[in-house]
Amino acid sequence: MADIPTNPRTDGRKPDELRPVRFQNGIAPNASGSTLIEWGNTRVICAVMIEESVPRWMKEQGVAGGWLTAEYSMLPYATEQRKQRDSTRGKVDGRTQEIQRLIGRSMRAAVDLEKLGPRTVCIDCDVLQADGGTRTASITGAFVALSLAIRKLLLQRKLTEDPILHGVAAVSMGVCAGEPLLDLCYVEDAAAAADCNLVMNTRSEFIELQGSGEEATFSEAELAALLALGKKGVSELLAAQQLALR
Questions:
Q1: Domain housing 86
Q2: Does residue 236 lie in a domain region?
Q3: Which of 126, 170, 194, 227 could crosslink 175 through cysteines, CB 3.0-4.6 Å?
Q4: Burial 112-148 (b: 16+ CB within 10 A, else e)
Q5: What is the pLDDT of residues 167-185, one digit of tens each?
């Protein structure tokens, strides 16, 4: 990996430094598992509810095991300008659909659905405050909430073995003013020439890599630098998750 620049960022971090990450578990008492992830100035409540049934398509197709799905929403006051609720518009916007599908895919990669049994895990990620990285915070927080919910099912003896395969976390990266940076806040994200999101597990396997140039291109060397930063960030986030689950 090339030398990491040490020029200060808007919030004083080094290019390879995450914003402070904190988990507050049990934030939603009615949920089977929940956490408030505070990641810099981004705050997301992730909560899991369990339904003792599976979608109709699974029954019709004779698919064994259970299912996991996710929903994502940004509350009207999460940003400086009020965001209209999806229920008011009468439809879910494209960005919201993309993010909740990403969360669902990421969490399904963490679970053996057959061991889950004939039940559906519903994960809700609600953004209280947005300052960049809401999708990566949702994924990282969702795994903690999911782990707490599975732990509860095991204690209740509704599960005989742990269906969780691997820890999963996600982080953003980007190229700003020619420098690869880890974990972009909103100001950096808005100015980035290239923007990426990385989802990985504890086996250092890739679950998803999203990347695009924002009215610009980026080189193979820049992509390699971004991946190196992302892998470092995910490793630190996985360790933070395990600490939160102790």
A1: 21-245
A2: yes
A3: 194
A4: ebebbbebbbbbbbbbebbbbbbbbbbbbbbbbbbbb
A5: 999 999 999 989 999 999 9
